[in-house]
Amino acid sequence: MSPEKVSFTEEKATLLATLYGRALDARSAQPILGDHLAAEAIERIDHDFRETGLDAKMASAVALRARFVDGWVAGFLAAHPDATVLHLGCGLDTRVYRMDPPPTSRWYDVDYPDVVELRRRLFPERPGHEEIGTSVTDLAWLEQVPADAPALVVAEGLLYYLDPAGGAALMRAIVDRFPGGGFVFDALSPLGLRLQRLNRPVRKAGATMHWAIDGPGALQAIHPGLRCVEAVSAFDLKGVERLSATHRAVMAIIKVVPALKRTAVFYRLEF
User: Fold this and answer.
1) pLDDT of residue 3
2) Apex CA 196: angle with CA 51 and CA 61, to 5°?
3) Are strands 227-233 and 264-270 parallel, antiparallel or unpaired?
4) pLDDT at residue 49, as a whole number
5) Cα–chain-centroid distance for residue 177?
6) Hey, how many other C-beta atoms are within 10 angstroms of the C-beta on 158?
7) What's the rounded Cα separation, in Å, for the pair 220 and 203?
8) What are the CA-CA distances from residue 211 to residues 18, 32, 190 (Å)?
């Protein structure tokens, strides 16, 4: 089987960095996430992953963030085994395989058509799992998803790349369509958005982030049905002792400066 050639640019290229981070973690002596499908996938892609700007020291942070979101997803599926999961901007994430959702649920991975086509060549089919190739802000794709069950929207590494108006319209459309559910995602504050060029993989990809979220109130203002139930700084995730000494030192400084601590936050919403 010949390697898959990829030519992603800008925000699409960042999916290669996060895939590489999960693969490096899986290959480490003590994996945090243990995403062996990611490790297999990079062997089948014709790309110099060193160009992503991500290295082994940063891989632990990628794995910690993914593990944290996985925990929220697992909690929702345990409470709602009949849920519909909308994994938006899924990239080459193997979350559906890590979660192994119950057969009573439905899982949709949604991303650009060329990303979805690559996913189909890299990863196996599984029951209850479908993929939709589209821009997430082209709301017509929602018509392909039955609206008869609680919906969990997973959007790790996505919202800050969206146009703010388009992102808010997407959230409103989902809340209006489904009988209830939740959102789990990470977001940047206005200061975090201004500091985006300090993120080496983003800079290497030539990507630009557009949407800053200034706390839970800004999210709840999008739709009256939304309520924020958890907001966790990315600098407070469990497992920071697994990060490099340099990374831990930077985080220690950030954690004592409130404005910096709020630059990157994980949110869990309900509706």
Assistant:
1) 83
2) 65
3) antiparallel
4) 93
5) 22
6) 24
7) 31
8) 20, 29, 8
User: Which structure tokens are listed for 203?
Assistant: 């800079």
Q: Is the entire prediction scored with pTM above 0.70? A: yes
Spatial separation of the C-alpha atoms in residues 106 and 83, rounded to whole Å: 6
Q: Report whether 152 contacts 86 (CB < 8 A).
A: yes
Query: Average per-residue pLDDT in the chain?
Result: 95
Q: Which stretches of 107-236 are DSSP H helices?
A: 113-122, 164-177, 190-194, 200-205, 216-220
Q: What is the tens place of the pLDDT at every residue in 137-180?
A: 999 999 999 999 999 999 999 999 999 999 999 999 999 999 99
Q: Which residue has the tokens 């944290």?
A: 68
Q: CA distances (Å), 226 to each of 135, 145, 173, 221, 222, in order? A: 23, 21, 12, 8, 8
CA distance 149 to 119: 26
Q: Helix 10-27 vs helix 56-79: angle between axes, to the nearest 10 degrees?
A: 90
Residue 1, pLDDT > 70, answer: no
Q: Which domains does the chain have, with CATH numbers?
A: 68-270 (3.40.50.150)
Specify the pLDDT at position 116. 98
Cα distance between the two ends of the chain: 45
Q: Which residues pair with 270 in a beta bridge?
A: 182, 227
